[in-house]
Amino acid sequence: NAGVTQTPKFQVLKTGQSMTLQCAQDMNHNSMYWYRQDPGMGLRLIYYSASEGTTDKGEVPNGYNVSRLNKREFSLRLESAAPSQTSVYFCASSGRGGSYNEQFFGPGTRLTVL
Amino acid sequence: GENVEQHPSTLSVQEGDSAVIKCTYSDSASNYFPWYKQELGKRPQLIIDIRSNVGEKKDQRIAVTLNKTAKHFSLHITETQPEDSAVYFCAAPEGYSSASKIIFGSGTRLSIRP
After folding, report:
1. Which residues numbered 55-114 in A keep a CB inside 8 Å of some CB on B?
2. Which of A36, A76, B43, B63 is the 20 to 30 A CA-CA neighbour of A107?
3. Strands A64-68 and A10-13, bridge-based pairing
């Protein structure tokens, strides 16, 4: 049982390049989330998916797109990377339905945009 | 939408003393309040949570209290130990559905002095 996995662990991009961050969970969770964490800062929600087939904007969606490929996988795409997107990106998943549940986080992707 | 404020941003306590971190929230419909701990370079992990039908919950040296009338909740750590050094985040959902997004506070960096 791997929990939540993310690839890649590290990435360096040049301004204007694009990339996709991958996330997968094997806990049969309904909801998945993408957060960014800037140095010394809290977790800010980029996008979330309450269930397969749905996605919604979070606090800081500009510059990002997401795809809930199936129940297991939720990807985050940067179409044209900017230095302001330098951050650590965490994917999380929660819930098999019903009341609120713990969010399980992946190990994070450390992204640097030059 | 939900707004979660967390205080203090940094906290230093002597080993063995108690630490208290406080959070306020704005959405009166919120009914689930988790606390996450993030050690340096690691992913956030849930340490305790409370639902709105109780005022206090304890788990060994940690406890959380909730005051729904005042819309604030607090994390209490007693007999602090070096391994308690970390960043702690409170959170609250936006809305009352289990599919609601979770909004995190800005975090408290707790340091335990030997």
Report:
1. 56, 58-59, 90, 95, 97-103, 105-108
2. B63
3. unpaired
